[in-house]
Predict the structure.
Amino acid sequence: MRERTIASHFVRAALRGAQHQGLDCLPLLRQAGVQPAVLEEPRARIDPQQFARLVQLLWERLDDEYLGFGRLKSKRGTFAMMGHAIIHCRTLEKALSRGALFYGLFPDAPTIRLEREGDWARLSVDDSSLWDPDHFLVECLLVIWHRLGSWLIGQRIRLEEATFTYAEPAHIAEYDLIFPCQRRFNAGRTSLLFHARYLGMPLLQDERTLKQFLEHSPADLLARPDGGDSLTSQIRRLLGRDCASWPDLDAVATQLHLSPQTLRRHLREEGSSFQELKDHLRRDLAIYHLGRDELAIQDIAEQLGFSEPSAFHRAFKKWTGLTPGAYRAQEN
């Protein structure tokens, strides 16, 4: 499901580099279909496609794949050229190593390292050369390299741990989706740890599939929700899109081969609850439909299981700080 929405924090963070360089970002927001009001509302969220479009527009306007956060630009096309440099490698280890070497050719670029630690492999990014107050670019680089590697071998690389050199942020709840693994802050480096068995796997892609991949990457990699191994991700997949036929907690527990009590306890440990999961899924489905014109707001309310539109309006305002009408409205 692609309805996992993007928190307004990441919209603000994505714009910081461009704003630091004096760029007026309001026209870009309008082109991406993002309401400027989203920037002022901490609870607001946007559709992943809107976020991908905004990132693409920033790259085009700045001619910089580092989005204004680097000392020097990484000109558009650099990521694509790196893709061509690694696509004929025999194994993932060779591809990631060559990709890191490729970016190491550019002065003042963030240093990317791939190291083995016994049965484990660690991909780290040194962001000391960046102006990145929200740690947005360094987290983007981790996400992009992880998902690039997964695409290359045709299977999702399961993460064991993500480490960060900075303190735990206020939007920590979002990290379950971005880095679905154990997370450690105030660490010695910013990195991803995964099993070394993936490094020996052969690349399943070629120049033909690379061309298709690059049409929407790396922006699409940032906006695409991770499949996720967490319990919350599994439950969201079981619930699906049809709110009217959602199974109750007991039925979900049965499908997961857990007792209802154990399911509730595991959800508490992940900082969630079954009701909160359903509310968040309704919110994401609402944002998905409001970003398109196929359904009237009243029809969306009915599809999401609300008895009347006013109840939907109240719930959506509580979720995002905006009314459904204000969210759907576009700047002229």
